[in-house]
Amino acid sequence: MSVPPKLAWKGVSKRFQAAPVLDGLDLSVEAGRSLVIIGGSGQGKSVTLKVALGLMQPDAGEIALDGQDVSRLPAAARRRLFSRFGVLFQGAALFDSVTVWENVAFRLINADGVGRKAAKARAIEALERVRLDAEVADLFPGELSGGMQKRVGLARAVVATPEILFFDEPTTGLDPITAAAINALIVEQVRRLGCTAVSITHDLASARTIGDEIALLHDGRIVWRGAPADLDATSDPRVRQFVDGLPDGPLTARP
After folding, report:
1. pLDDT tens, N- to C-terminus, the chain (255 residues)
2. Residue at 10 is within a domain
3. Nearest-CA neighbor of 14 among 3, 25, 26, 29?
4. Distances (CA, A) of 107 to 111, 123, 196, 216
5. HSE-up of 67 (CA within 13 Å, CB side)?
6. Which residues 6+ apart lie within 8 Å of 118 measured at CB?
7. 55 inside domain
């Protein structure tokens, strides 16, 4: 009996008003693998992540976790499902009014019922794993650089040892050196946890670094999928246009 993918989008469609965003999307990622979804603006990358996370419900199709459809679970069951996920949001999305360690431990305290003392200890351990000193724990996000804030967001994503990590544009707004450091930390944490990872990004350098596989999303469907090395080897005109940044070709921008 074959083992189902860790996560799969099966015939997923999503429309906003009259416009289709996802159009029968079929995509899957095996346990322990890192999949990166690339594509132009407005092609459905963020919606792909949101339906997987349960933040949006698909109009059609299903989201399967370990072979079980989870796309239409009741609210209580959906909250339990979230405990298996970790997310690094675009821009880190930290709470400005609480300290760094409270940001990292937010889920531990508010969802998992971990006491504040134990939660702070676990938060500091997570911060140290992303190369931040314990002294950072009692600072506020506004006192940190953009790269440090991104590390805090990564610490928050991994603190509860999730089964699946989601990365939403993990290097947006970072300089190339800081972005490379974040990419290296992502690879390190995914390998340390042995978890599955799904990322969306415009950054091809990031995609090549963190992905075992890369999938090109266009008009709500996957039009190409391969290993990072295949981005340069393939003659597929859609991949060539995207990778080379060509204005003319088979990929047309959505309005």
Report:
1. 678 999 999 999 999 887 889 999 999 999 999 999 999 888 889 999 999 988 888 999 999 999 988 887 787 777 777 788 999 988 778 999 999 999 999 999 988 889 999 999 999 999 999 999 999 999 999 999 988 999 999 999 999 999 999 999 998 888 999 999 999 999 999 999 999 999 999 889 999 999 999 999 998 999 999 999 999 899 888 989 888 888 888 887 665
2. no
3. 25
4. 5, 11, 20, 32
5. 4
6. 108
7. no
pTM for the predicted model, two decimal places: 0.92
Say if 149 falls within a structural domain. Answer: yes
C-beta separation of 63 from 47 below 8 A:
no
Considering the domain boundaries, does residue 25 fall inside one? no
Q: Which domain holds residue 151?
A: 95-161
- As beta bridge partners, residue 245 has none
* Number of domain units in the chain: 1
